[in-house]
Specification:
alpha/beta; Rossmann fold; 2 domains; six-stranded parallel sheet; 12 strands
């Protein structure tokens, strides 16, 4: 279509790990670009992929941010009709992306912000600067994409926003990518292999998981924990496991992508993600799209997706005893793990497929859809 509206898209598009082990924000950006929304928009991408974990120095990050802001300015000058869509994280990422939103609004552009990190709540709690800056950015944005109704309520309260500017668009994925895994999953066993898929960082709860297994080691004698991911606390996690004598319970595979990730999703019976902060973890949706139930903490957008005793189990964050009880429950022959897995699959297919998400993004960008399928969502 020659009349597609240009959209400057600031997000993560490049696989910085080199092995396909990219995170949820990159998957969200890529899958959106490849979706049916492309019939209505002409993407002008500005890549903001995090280049390493832990992140580089502030000087290096500042220089990269300045280049991206300059790229935004250039794109807005070249494309007077362009809308702006900005995916933002926490900390310095939000400062950079918030500055972009403010700049876009100074140019009179329709600018949509999509905050994706639960750690932003910590920034608000700890920093007077963020308590002033975040509401300013939220109020400046033409619209805010919220990963759940709980996030919409949070942003409404933080910035006293009119609810009409808050667009709840649950995190999405391409369900067809996981259909084969869901079709071949064996559903007659109780959980024995638990998958942890994510960063090895404090806020992801990896140490809460280790402590839970240690406290219930006898009851979890038959359980195995497959850890797929990496991060700045990997060495410390391995050392703690060795010190506690749990080496036989945990297997670390590092970042997995492609067939290696598919193998992990097939091998495991249940995902466990005991995060202390989240936006809406993509790992949860990937597992559920594979027909796998989830043990997760009640943080961020998780309670909007995981329903306790229906498609998984929900536990409080930073509570290893509660996590241990949930793990033990899943080993019981009476646990309805098979039913949870089927319901998990239905939940994601009905609410989190990218084909249901992109029409909502299109409306947030104030672009009219002529396809009746888009108007129906």
């Amino acid at each position: 279509m020659n009349d597609r509206i240009p959209v400057i898209f600031v997000g993560a598009f490049r696989d910085a790990t080199g092995d396909g082990g990219f995170g949820g924000q990159m998957y969200a950006c890529r899958s959106l670009v490849d979706s049916g929304i492309g019939a209505y928009v002409r993407w002008l991408p500005i890549d903001s992929t995090m280049v390493s974990v832990p992140p580089p120095s502030l000087a290096v990050r500042g220089l990269a941010a300045a280049r991206r802001v300059w790229s935004l300015l250039g794109a807005m000058l070249r494309e007077p009709r362009a809308r702006v869509l900005v995916f933002a994280g926490d900390g310095p990422s939000f400062v950079e992306k918030g500055t972009m939103i403010l700049l876009a609004r100074c140019f009179g552009r329709h600018a949509v912000l999509c905050p994706r990190s639960g750690i932003l709540l910590d920034d608000l709690r700890r920093s007077a600067f963020f308590r002033r800056f975040v509401p300013t950015v939220l109020r400046a944005a033409s619209g805010v994409l919220c990963q759940s109704s709980q996030w919409a309520a949070t942003f409404r309260d933080v910035a006293a926003l009119d609810p009409s500017r808050l667009h709840v668009v649950p995190n999405w994925l391409r369900c067809d990518d996981y259909a084969a895994l869901a079709a071949t999953r064996t559903r007659v066993r109780s959980a024995r292999t638990f998958l942890y898929l994510g960063w090895i960082e404090d806020f992801k709860g990896i140490f809460d998981l280790i402590d839970a297994v240690d406290a219930r080691r006898d009851a979890l004698a038959e359980a195995r924990f497959l850890v797929c991911g990496s991060g700045s606390r990997l060495s410390e996690a391995l050392q703690r496991i060795q010190r506690l004598g749990l080496e036989s319970r945990f297997e670390f595979r590092g970042w997995v992508g492609g067939e290696a990730k598919r193998a992990a999703l097939t091998e495991a019976d249940m995902l466990v993600l005991p995060s202390r902060r989240e936006g809406m973890p993509n790992a949860v949706l990937e597992a559920m799209a594979s027909g796998m139930p989830v043990i997760a903490t009640a943080v961020g957008g998780v309670p909007d997706v995981v329903r306790d005793g229906v498609n998984g189990l929900v536990v409080p964050p930073a509570d290893p005893p509660a996590l241990g009880r949930a793990l033990v429950r899943c080993l019981s022959p009476d646990a309805d793990v098979a039913s949870w897995g089927l319901e998990a699959l239905r939940t994601v297919r009905n609410n989190h497929d990218v084909d249901a998400a992109w029409p909502r993004v299109l409306r947030a960008l104030d672009i009219e859809a002529t396809d009746p399928r888009a108007s129906a969502n």
